[in-house]
Amino acid sequence: MNLKDCHNFSDFRKLAQKRLPSPIFHYIDGAADDEVTYARNTSAFDDVDLVPNVLRGVEEVDLSTTIFGKKLDLPFYLSPTALQRLFHYDGERAVGKAAKKFNTMFGVSALATVSVEEISSMIDTPKMFQFYFHKDRGLNDSCLERAKAANFDVMALTVDTITGGNRERDLRTGFTSPPKLTLASLYSFATKPMWGINYLTKGKFELPHLQDFVKEGTDVNSSIGNYFSTMLDQSMNWKDAENLCSKWGGHFALKGIMSVEDAKRAVDIGCTGIMVSNHGGRQLDGSRAPFDQLAEIVDAVGDKLDVICEGGIHRGTHMLKALSLGAKACSGGRLYLYALAAGGQAGVERALEKYKAELVRDMKLMGCTKISDLNRSNLRFRK
Amino acid sequence: MALKDCYNFNDFRNLAKKKLPSPIFHYIDGGADDETTLKRNTEAFNQCDLVPNILANVGKPDLSTTIFGKKIDMPIFLSPCAMQRLYHHDGDKASARAAEKFGTFYSMSTMANNTIEEISNISGGPKLFQLYVHKDQSITDDLIDRCKRSGFNGMCLTVDTLVAGNRERDHRTGFTTPPKLTLQSLMSFASHPSWVFNYLTHGKFKLANVASKTDKGTNIAKSVIEYINEQYDPSMNWKDAEYCVKKWNGPFALKGVMSVDDAKRAIDIGCTAIMISNHGGRQLDGSRSPFDQIKAISDAVGDKLEIILDGGVRRGTHVLKALAAGAKACSFGKIFLFSLAAGGQQGVEHLLRNMHDEINRNMVLMGCKNLKELNSSKLIYRN
After folding, report:
1. pLDDT tens readout for residues A334-375
2. Predicted ipTM?
3. How far is residue A107's CA from residue A109's CA, in Å, rounded to a whole number?
4. CATH number at residue B46
5. Measured between CB atoms, does A201 come within 8 Å of chain B?
6. Number of domains making up chain B
7. Which residues contact B204 (CB under 8 A, 6 or more apart)?
8. For a 10 Å CB count at each end of chain A, is N or C smaller?
9. What is the pLDDT of residues A29-67, one digit of tens each?
């Protein structure tokens, strides 16, 4: 199997599984508890059907959308995800360049392995910085200042990781701290020598946004769950979010909103966008899927801020359904991470090309030429 | 595989399967007929989703609740289960000690292998006794009097076993009378020598609480099914239940209530609680699951008695959903028996610790400070 054999989400996933040591693959692929929410994030799209219109003259399709004051050529962007250099030695460099090529937003995690400064010098297209609220206020200030100085367009505060989710695959594979090098995981690293060689020879693994402040987490062996539970400030409240929002002074989003009530409060504290998200099913299993919850939230606040549907998206038609319900854009992490692992920048570009081609084809089949043509009359919910 | 590798229901189940002779494993694991209800008991939780609130500054959530007049440290407890000596040579002693350690209820079955007095001597924790109405009323009276003298906190009367369910796995494995020692079951006992050794060397197996009154059931070769059908009074009616409530004169539950009408009658005869249960899917296959039924019952009687959900609970999020739908606490049998079989007292403690941590983590992710905040607004049912 090769990159050219990858036509969809599950193909990229399979190739990633071939290329990555299993603890790393399962870190991407896994979710919380029984992964019920993770599965629902995608299956929710199948409870509603698209209803196409015909004879509309659709030779030219415009996929552009505007979020956070920035015009993107695609109605979806790349969610911020941590530790990208674990998945491919180019990490954020590969993903950023691919995002630039397609002129869509690139989300950079606080746990990125390439610095905001380097990314900013590399790409001039829209950029979002994803922020965790740490106990260490000096670290918080430093993140905001560096992102501002590096001309990031949007700040997104993650609000659904107040404690680490129960990712049982990581417990079993030993993607945890201290590293449980079981026989199985050793075997897995040994049988993926290319990953090991690249990991060791293409520059030191770093977390540039944290390393001046902490020892934890800069060692790849520290687990993400542990980082959430020990370094982040669990007392974070609406006042803190409001202060961060005004301190940033630009486009500001809360990532991980699921209730209508919280969406309304996001408007009150000055947010210009929200990501309806359950962290890809990686935090609270049994929680509602973003697509299931989208309509209610759009009805309540869709005219006041940008509502982004994040999670479970595998297909162009999934995006069409979310956009029809009123999302301004979609985003995803696994959407491009498998592709990154499968082939670096070329992999991510191939994935973006595939999703774009799907969107163009599906828009034509729906009889739509621009994103604003999509609305709820395109959809029928099954009961 | 060892106890430390047990993170969830399946892990405990797998370890129990390794440790137990197969007729005994299947006696725990099986349900009635086609086991449709057994499956549904757990699946029902996936028909609705939790909706978390963010930025709630939860701190350390308070997981305590009060049932049967006793404050317990977390909203789960051990259901009464018969013949625990079969699963681990420490039997009820192990369960009672583990429950006390975690500040929650241990429940004793009429068909326990330890006496009421023995358990009361080793555990000062909260204790519930599970009663069957016997044909010989002096047996029933004797049990109630002894529980009172021994300081049990609550009494529950099982009302869903007027006749034994059709547990076909038991027919096949020979967990029946006269014992069908098939080649397969003999092999299974022979291949679990440490179970057999412990079973034979740790005191005689007897139904300790009724041993002085009847010689039935004192032999492992007598099946539970036969005991139920011989000893329990199938003509038991509301009057009999009311008699027990009056005689006990303390916190009292009917265990196995499934209809709204019966829940209302439970109030009329003076019950302080009901356990919504279908006996873990072991009695009437095709009957409704507790979680599917809880909302209707809670709407009707939730303000007048304590509702306990018994059946299908495997995860902290299941508990959260049950509480949001109106339960005051949940109880479980299978998962706890597997943990008992997997590691005796240590096994049960491991399970209770896992469950505690899951409930705690999920409360934080839900943004709830205490169990009262888990109300119906946090739960959305899918169509």
Report:
1. 999 999 999 999 999 999 999 999 999 999 999 999 999 999
2. 0.86
3. 7
4. 3.20.20.70
5. no
6. 1
7. none
8. C
9. 999 999 999 999 999 999 999 999 998 999 999 999 999
